[in-house]
Amino acid sequence: MALLKILHFPDSKLRIVAKPVTLVDDNIRKIVADMFETMYDAPGIGLAATQVNIHQQIIVIDISEDKNQPLCLINPQISDKDGLQITEEGCLSVPSIFDKVERAENITVQALNEKAETISFNADGLLAVCIQHEMDHLNGKLFVDYLSSLKRQRIAKKLSKQREKSL
Ligand code: K1U
Ligand code: ZN
User: Is 12-166 CATH 3.40.630.180?
Assistant: First the structure.
């Protein structure tokens, strides 16, 4: 397994729209394993392939406290959503920035898992937020896009200062 480099806002590669996976093979399973390792190491509760510069529709998630409930979603789709929730979100591609975002409260998801099986389930609360956040990444969208352009500019400035300091 390998740790992958996470792209940071405002990197333009975060805006690339991911393509569907056509075959879930060992190459895809290696990407999934590396993504889990990268997510647990960060640490985070989710990671989309876009964030590690892989432009295929792959998401990994684990919202459990003990980090023992891995969930891999390949070619995810939301067929139903209802209700609204406002949650403080973070993002491994926008380090140390947190802000409130409004998302659907309940969603119905279809996807393939790493064994190429079709899965379908309902999600609510944090899991629903995380799936919507990660699916946005696959579409080249970041949670800061829901904030005002003034806030987004301030965040870009803050991150570029942080980067300068760390060089
Ligand atoms: O997509 C990402 O960048 C991962 C992101 C997922 C996410 C968090 C919160 C709301 C929506 C989506 C993160 O994991 S940020 C880090 C984080 O939230 C966290 C890290 C360690 C323990 C608990 C949470
Ligand atoms: Zn994110």
Answer: no
Going by alpha carbons, the residue nearest to atom 3 of ligand 1 is 91
How far from the centroid of its chain's Cα atoms is residue 71's Cα?
Answer: 12
pLDDT category, 1, cuts 50, 70, 90? Answer: confident
**47 CA to centre of ligand 2 in angstroms:** 7
pTM comes to: 0.97
Pocket of ligand 1 (CB under 6 A): 43-48, 89-93, 129-130, 133-134, 137
Domain residue ranges of the chain, discontinuous segments joined by +: 12-166
- The dihedral built from the CA positions of residue 128, 129, 130 and 133, taken in this order, carries a sign that is positive
pLDDT more than 70, % of the chain: 100
* Alpha carbon distances (Å) from 67 to 7, 63, 64, 112: 23, 7, 5, 21
Q: How many Å lie between the centroid of ligand 1 and the Cα of residue 66?
A: 15
Q: What is the pLDDT of residue 52?
A: 99
In this predicted structure, the answer to whether residue 166 has a pLDDT above a threshold of 90 is no
